[in-house]
Amino acid sequence: MSEEPVGKQYIKHPLILENSVEQRLYQLNIVSGCTMKHSLVVLPTSLGKTVVALLVMVMRLEKFGGKVLLLSPTKPLVEQHFDFFSRVMKLPEGQVKAFTGSITPEKRREMWQEASVIIATPQVIENDLINSRISLKDVSCVVFDEAHRSVGNYAYTYIAEKYVNASDFPLILGITASPGSEKEKIDEVCTALSIENVVVKTEEDADIKPYVHKKELEWMTLELPKELIEIREALKKVLNERLDKMAEYGYPLEQKFLAKRDLLALQSQLMAELKRDSADPSVYQAVSVMAEIMKIEHAVELIETQGTKPLLAYLKKMDEEAGTSGASKAVKRLAADLYFRQALHLTEKCGVEHPKFYAVQTMVGEQLSKYPDSKIIVFTNFRETANIVKEALSEIPDVRPIRFVGQGSRKNDKGLTQKQQTEIIEQFRAGVYNVLIATSVAEEGLDIPSTDMVLFYEPVPSEIRSIQRKGRTGRFQTGRVIMLITKGTRDEAYRWSSQNKERRMLSEMKNLQKNYSSGAAGATATVTAAASSKGVENETQKTFTDFEKEFKSKYEHKRSEMSDGSDDSKSFFDSDSQSESEYILESTADLASVSISEIPAARSSIFSESFNDGEETETELKEAPLKILADTREIKSGVLKCLDSHGIELKTTRLEVADYVVSDDMAVERKTIADFNASLIDGKRNLFSQLLDLSKTYKKPVLIIEGDENLASGQMHENSIRGALLSIEIDFGVSIFYTKSEEETALLLKMMAKKEQTDGKKTVNPHGKKPAKTTHEQQEYILSSISGVGPNAAQLLLHEFGSLNNIFNASEEDLCRVKGIGKVTAKRIHEVMKAEYKK
Q1: What Å distances lie between residue 104 and 31, 107, 575, CA to CA?
Q2: Which entry of 76, 118, 283, 634 is 20 to 30 Å from 575 by CA?
Q3: What's the confidence (pLDDT) of residue 212?
Q4: 295 falls in which pLDDT band (50, 70, 90)?
Q5: Does the pLDDT of residue 609 top 50, yes or no?
Q6: Closest to 445 measured CA to CA, from 414, 420, 473, 422
């Protein structure tokens, strides 16, 4: 056994290796209140949140046995935690396991049974819970790393709810450095994690100070050159004209400084107004102008905070896009604007760069000249800027820069794979590179070594991101943080916004801690959460029961009127049953005379709530659980979580046909209203092709259209949508159902599963395969995939020319001679067939 270093003490616990984890008094104080209550711990970066998690986990293992689970947002963080826990825990080999998406589901099921400590990404655990591969019954503690993510539809919220209800002895520990400054968000995190105890520590606390290294914060204010101001003024003229139009439409905006949050809020307001039946025509115009404002406002931000090169790339991209047939009206109007053309011209000929580039070169060069072994991170919001900064720094001797961006790829800008990210981080750690030029991907979720200097190319208005960026330095020695601020621009606003939010966050968290420590808030929160949960459950059950009774009564009454009693076993979903289709059409009146916005409501009067004959007991449901097979791409939707909460036995797999399979005979394609509209006009997402495969593969094909907005709120005319709906039901034999939300969709799917599996005694098997297309079907499919060429036009063209080869070799004039083919469509066919392939 190695001797303990002088002056250092180490944690002594049966499940922790001797002399492996330094003992710090503040960590022990935090842990003392977290072993029996669901707790949220807010601790600055580099002060040992992982050690706090370790101590709570080993204490729970010692007391209750079973398993403990640590969730972390990214695969690199999972691997980092796995390495730490494997090194310091005194457990038999193989008892600590890391779960990521790269491990097969069946292997994870086996590993879960073997492990005592599981470290995983939340998406993997969510998937395994939905598919019933694992149970949380014997899990004595779940740690939520980066707990501020426990909001909305993120996997943490589902896992936390599932865990509290399933475990015999649940304990939640949330750990974060920055929960946010908004009280509503902090409350949402606390509610999602059932928090009863809050612990907040800052670098100013007496027991923390001995372990904190100083961070020197510097603000460098720079003047925007007159050449860049001239470009900005041209862009502002474009912007102001659009702001004047918005004021004319009744939506005035402050011209001096447009906050992105305000613009997004107004955009959401306009989209909501579009959903109303009585939307004024000016709203449609305002939506289009708003799109222009968002684009030109971004251009102003680029010239103020980034420089001419990123702006030039952005303006050229818009200008090129405006010349394509698929360009939006907003882009075309902007590109044709005189002042836009002036701004583009000025940017192209400008020989002056933003002073930030020179400041970055100076600050990085001086730091490495004075301290050659330094490691530096330069943070920037935009990839284009990261590229330019890397080029600028590469010119300086002894500076070895590397660009570090996310995994997403876009035109002429390939992202980094997770493997490449890991390799770059290791090379940065080893000194192969000494400057990391990073976008937001380096703020959280990656094991990046501590640095000597962090340079903000621009301030960020988010207090969470600002704290995370600054936390990348000053871990083991004094660190330096430099922020570049362009005078008289949004940089100044973002600086003050971030500082104010950080102060507000600290104040909110201290108040929250005080309230919980007094007992009042903790008790209130627990009782309120329990009451709220119970209320939701009762409300859902009531809706479900009413849904069942109303549907059962209405449908059975109508069917008894239409049936002679000789075919009692015939399901109303049978695709060859004309009576059901006729009844639907009759009950919703003549679709041609009904407003599109009324169709979902009219149809929902029959099919928007589920049925229950009142004789089914909970015991019977438990003995014979309903089963539904779902496509893996549906996991993000929230429908699966709702189905799981209703006791449905789920299995996810990649389905070639359908989103949900409820029996051997019945399968469902689910579309939100936005998806439905998009799939009618997007050749790559051809709805009719999907439904054709569905109807050929299953006897009872179903389409669910989900959402409470107007079906005609998109680009298509009402009559086109009416025709599509009629064609889907009558020509394709697909039953259409409307739901308002993911919860309603789940209830409807449960209803279908009950009808098929309990009443119809059907099984669920993933037999659906896309049927092989005949030669003429493939020809029609290829041609109809071209924008503007539908199935009917494809057939007419093939009848006229006889083959695809003849069509592709025909002139535009010859194509236009075919009925229904205009100049635009003919030109588009030529463009697709003759254009050079460029990815």
Answers
A1: 35, 5, 38
A2: 634
A3: 78
A4: very high
A5: no
A6: 422
